[in-house]
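Lay summary

Proteins are chains of building blocks that fold into shapes. Our project writes down both the chain and a compact code for its shape. Here are two examples, one after the other.
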Amino acid sequence: MSSPAPEHPQADEPYCSTTQAAKLLGVSLGTVQQMVEDGVLEAWKTSGGHRRILRESVLAHISRRGALPHSAKGDNTLLVLIAEDEPLQQELYRRTLGKWQLPVHIEIVGSGIDGLVAVGRQVPDILIVDLILPGVDGFQMVRTLHANTALTQMDIIVVSALEPEDIRARGGLPEDVTYYRKPIPFHELRGYFQAKVTERLKSRRAAPAF
């Protein structure tokens, strides 16, 4: 008897099952099947009759679809999404940001795939990305999201242990992506967040009342 498929496709697999695609997209199996029939997702069938869906087509659909920007909800809280796979680093983010008296809500994911899903569900105000992530790495995640013109209001910050020359050797990052070298520069991040909160408050005060 075959073992059950993992919730997400493995890092070295270019495809995923219908069930995995449905979980990633947050839709029903029937919807995934219809998306395949409509050509929205690229797929094929194995010799055993099982459908396999190209992972890249699932991720591309996630990055293209519209999601509600957090700022559209009407409050001043910044939604910060952090893509970091190291548990100790995750805990450091939680503890440090939790001590700041700033209107910030953080969500932490451990892979690039989960990061793309989270952005597809709700666009954060700020995305912090490590470049070395399992499966879809930070480079691919940043490039995929940066290419989506619907996400221009989302700030992308890279916090990585990679040296600038190593980043350039891997194709570099978009010019408007902020890069910080690890260890995590919490002093700079706090200033960045504070400026973003101040900008949000000024924007709301200047907005005309209807």
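And here is the second example, written the same way.
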Amino acid sequence: MPRSRESWARLTAAIIAAATLLAMIPPVLGNLDKQGGLLGALWWLGRFFTILTNLAIGAVFARIAWRGSLSVSPLLEGGVMLAIVLVGLVFNLLLPGLQHATWADYLGDKVHHVIVPLAVPLWWLVFAPHGRLSWRSPLAWALYPLAYAAYVITRAQFEPAGTPARYPYFFMDVDTFGWAAAIGNMAAIALGFVLVGWLAVWIDRRLG
């Protein structure tokens, strides 16, 4: 990648990393009192796919900003890109709008659910080295939402029924839908993840 283009890649990666990590501050502060302190707030927020995925974006793009666009494997780069696209699609198509106590909460929400899910695939299209993904890559990427689903279901078994956000997203709610329907919903999302992943691989190969 030409030096000037690489400089832009690292600068924009730094902006994305800073935005997503700074946007973690409002939800953490907003849950300090509710959850009994910092550890309680982090444990509470750690149940949400949005939070975990934005943390991954922050870490990956901070590394790109620090070490360059070739410092992250194409498999990881493509995987976090696809995961944040899933965040944006699921939130904006399936989930109702959130109520915000402050403008900071509103801004943090928009960064995590709208701005970063748009910025990351644009960065990937423009700056990521292309032509290095295989058709098996989406199968590896699908392990992330499946692992998240297993984590949420396992975690829910240690929380009493009726606990707020025991199942963070309505389509995962075993108490409401039953095991078969909830697992079917999550499997459908994982399948969609694979299909969109194959589209990403096709685009990657065309650009490569």
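What can we say about the second shape? Residues 20 and 54 are 6 Å apart (CA to CA).
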